[in-house]
Amino acid sequence: MKKIIVLAIFSFIFSALKAQPVLEGDWTGALEIMGTSLDIITHFTNENGNYNGKIDIPLQKQKGLALSKISYNNPKVYFELDVPNGLARFDGAFVNDTIKGLFSQAGYEGTFYLVKGLLYVPNEKKEEVKESLPYKEEEVTFANGDIKIAGTLSLPVAPGKHPAVVMITGSGPQNRDEEVAGFKVFKVIADHLTKNGIAVLRCDDRGVGGTTGKSVDEYTSEDFAGDAIEAVKYLQTRSDINSEQIGLFGHSEGGLIAPMAAVKYSDIAFIVCMAGTGVNGGEILKEQSKLIMKASFIKPEEISKDMITLETMLDAIKNNKDLSGIKATMKEERLKEYDKLPDAQKSKIKNKEEWADSFVGAYMKAFTSTWMKFFISYDPAPALEKVKCPVLLLFGETDLQVPPDQSEKPMLDALKKGGNKDYQSKIFIKANHLFQESETGNPNDYPKLKKEFVGGFLDYVTEWITKRVTIRK
C-alpha cells in the first residue's frame, strides 16, 4: 500500500477498506461436495461498476470459463457458471478476508471457499526454474485391460535394484499428486521417500490426466485394486526395481484398497494405510457427515434431520428397498427449504418443482452410483484379516473424514485376528485427513493451511519402510 502523508485521509481509507472488501482480483479456493474437494481459481474485474469474471477448474482441465450474474453487495457475493452439465450457482459472503458460501449444480449441493490471491496454480505446468532433484523422474504408462494408466516414477540415482512403493489415491477423481487445495500430498511423499532410496510410482485416476476410462463413480474399489496390482506387475518388469520389495501406500479409500490388493496379489511386500477405513463406507459417511456439519456450526436440529435422511437412504440402498418414498420425502423437504429462501434467491429459480426434482434426482444418482453402492456396503475387516505382509496404519487425531476413533481399533483387531506378525499403528496429534496440522480438522480449512505435513510424519513413514527393505547406496 502506498504511504499516505495525511493521517486523517489514511484513517478514512483504511476504515473504508475494512468495511468494503474488494472483490476484484484473483482468488484461490475449492469446492467441497459429496466428500470431495475440487480446486478452483476465480478472476474478477470491475468495469464502471459492472463485474466480469472467469473461473479455472484445473482438475477438469477447464480454464477461463466465463462467469455470469456476478453481484457484490457487501458482504454478499453471488455468481453463476453456465455449463452443459447444469447451471452452477455460487452464493456466498465475505467472512473476514475469505469468501465462503453455498455451491449448487444440477441438484448437488456443497460449499465453496475463496482466498484472495493466486496461492497456487494446481495441475498446471508453471513457467519456472525446476528444482535440481537428487533423483530421476520418468513418465510411464501401463495397462489394466483396456484402461491405459499414466504416472510418474521417481527413481533413486544409486545403481542397482531399488525397493518401491505404489501410491493409491483416495475417493473421487484424483491426479497423480493427489492434489487437494494446492497441497500435493503424493508428490511430497514421493519426494521424501525417493531421497531416502525408495522408488515411488504415483498415477492419475481413471478418467483423470493421462489415464483413460470413465468417471471414477462408474467403477468400484475392486477395480482400483486391480489397477494397483498392475502397477506392481509393471514395476516387477523393470531392471532397476527390486521385484520382491514393492509395497502399496494408500490414502483414505486407498487405505481400503491396499489390503484388498495385497490379498489378491501375494507379491506385495508391505502396505501403508494413511487414514484407511476400518468399517463399511456407510458408517464412515454417517460419522463423517455428522462431524463435519458440527464443525461447520450447522444447527443441531438440522444435523439430526440430515442424518435421518442419510441413514434412511443408506439402509434402502444396502437392502435394495424401493426408493420412491424417500424421493417423495426429500422433494417435500426441498420445497419447504424453497419457501424459506429470500426473495432474491427465489427469483433465480424459474420453476420450484423442477428445482426440487433436479436436486432429488442428482442426490439419488450420486447415492446409487456403482462406486457408492460398493463403498457403503464393503467391510474392510475380512481382507485385513488375510493380509500377511507388514502393515503400517496411520491416523490423524483431528481427522473428521476418517475419524481414528472409528477405524483404528477394527483395523488392529482384524490384523490381530488374522495372525499378522508385523503391524503398527500411530495417531498423529493435531493432524487432519491430509495429515496437515489442524486444530479443527475441518475440510473447509484446507485452502488456508500450510501445504506441508505435521512434524515427524514423513520421517516416521520412511523409517518404518526402510527397516523392511534393502536400500541401495
Question: What does this molecule look like?
Answer:
With 473 residues, the protein is an alpha+beta fold. The protein folds into 2 domains: 7-116, Lipocalin (Beta Barrel); 135-281 and 376-466, Alpha/Beta hydrolase fold, catalytic domain (Rossmann fold, 3-Layer(aba) Sandwich), CATH 3.40.50.1820. It has 13 helices and 18 strands. The protein has helices spanning 7-19, 185-195, 221-236, 253-264, 281-295, 300-318, 324-340, 343-346, 352-367, 370-377, 381-386, 404-417, 457-466; strands at residues 25-33, 36-47, 50-57, 62-73, 76-83, 86-95, 98-105, 108-116, 135-144, 147-156, 162-168, 179-180, 183-184, 199-203, 241-251, 271-274, 391-396, 423-428. The strands form 3 sheets. It has an 8-stranded antiparallel β-barrel. The protein has an 8-stranded mixed beta sheet with strand order 9-10-14-11-15-16-17-18, with helices on both faces. A two-stranded antiparallel sheet has the order 12-13. Helix 3 packs across helix 4. The longest helix is centred in the middle third of the chain and has 19 residues, at 300-318. The radius of gyration is 24 Å and the shape is globular. The termini are far apart.
